[in-house]
Recover the amino acids of this structure.
């Protein structure tokens, strides 16, 4: 462990027990006399990404709802930006932990947040910048900083002006998806797919690797049914506390479009057809 970690976390005994590489970062797991720590390592330019993650974890932890790994320290040391987190030993979900996760996520979404949509800092979703400039209007926030930003980056990277043209009708008519409902800002995990949640051995559900901001609570559910990993126990418990509003299914596809656009941007044209299909169904 780099001395800065040892000194600032006041550790005496430190040993490396595992290291590896995730999709985005390197990681080290250390055992110390103060417990085990999970250390994410990135290039120095990745500091903002790691600090955004730390802020999201802090905000979720403060709601006292769903369990997250506690963030301790972030910064730059030598050739790496780092984020030090509590290390949790996790296992696959059971029906009980899925049910509890659904309930606790709903409880987090019901916590009173700020009056605007966004976050005090920009962060990332995967490696894509996520712009969180505060906005009084959810529709405008989603148009400008979610769909609009992704489409601009896709056009810049792939010169796909056809997809941008296809989106024009949808972008002009976003308000029709929200007729008769009131959207209030909820703290969102922001990147809630099956790979970003598990359970402790005692059945406590855990979420991690967030891309937090304050937005419409339904947006957090959209990614849960894109790639699997969430059961009827999860959805049943969630909707006991927050029932589906009129138009939920169509908005679910709208919010999925953001994630499919991001996958197209990050991973290439294999995701373009999913974007086109969603755009055609929504426009």
């Amino acid at each position: 462990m780099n001395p800065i970690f040892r000194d600032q976390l006041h550790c005496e005994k430190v040993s490396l027990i595992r290291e590896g590489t995730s999709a985005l970062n390197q990681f080290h797991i250390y055992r110390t006399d103060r417990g085990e720590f999970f250390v994410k390592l990135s290039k120095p330019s990745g500091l903002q990404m790691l600090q955004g993650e730390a802020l999201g974890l802090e905000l979720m932890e403060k709601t006292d709802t769903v369990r997250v790994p506690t963030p301790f320290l972030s910064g730059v040391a030598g050739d790496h930006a780092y984020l030090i987190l509590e290390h949790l030993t996790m296992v696959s979900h059971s029906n009980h932990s899925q049910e509890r996760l659904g309930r606790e996520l709903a409880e987090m979404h019901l916590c009173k947040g700020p009056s605007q949509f966004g976050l005090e800092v920009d962060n990332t979703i995967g490696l894509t910048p996520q712009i969180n400039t505060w906005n009084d209007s959810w529709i405008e926030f989603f148009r400008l900083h979610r769909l609009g930003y992704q489409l601009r980056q896709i056009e810049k990277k792939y010169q796909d002006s056809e997809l941008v043209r296809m989106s024009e009708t949808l972008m002009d008519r976003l308000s029709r998806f929200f007729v008769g409902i009131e959207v209030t800002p909820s703290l969102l995990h922001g990147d809630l797919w099956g790979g970003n949640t598990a359970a402790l051995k005692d059945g406590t559900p855990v979420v991690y690797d967030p891309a937090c901001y304050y937005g419409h609570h339904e947006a957090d559910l959209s990614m849960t049914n894109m790639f699997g990993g969430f059961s009827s126990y999860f959805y049943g418990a969630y909707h006991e506390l927050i029932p589906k509003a009129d138009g939920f299914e169509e908005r679910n596809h709208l919010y999925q479009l953001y994630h499919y656009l991001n996958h197209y941007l990050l991973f290439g044209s294999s995701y373009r057809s999913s974007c086109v299909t969603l755009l055609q169904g929504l426009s």
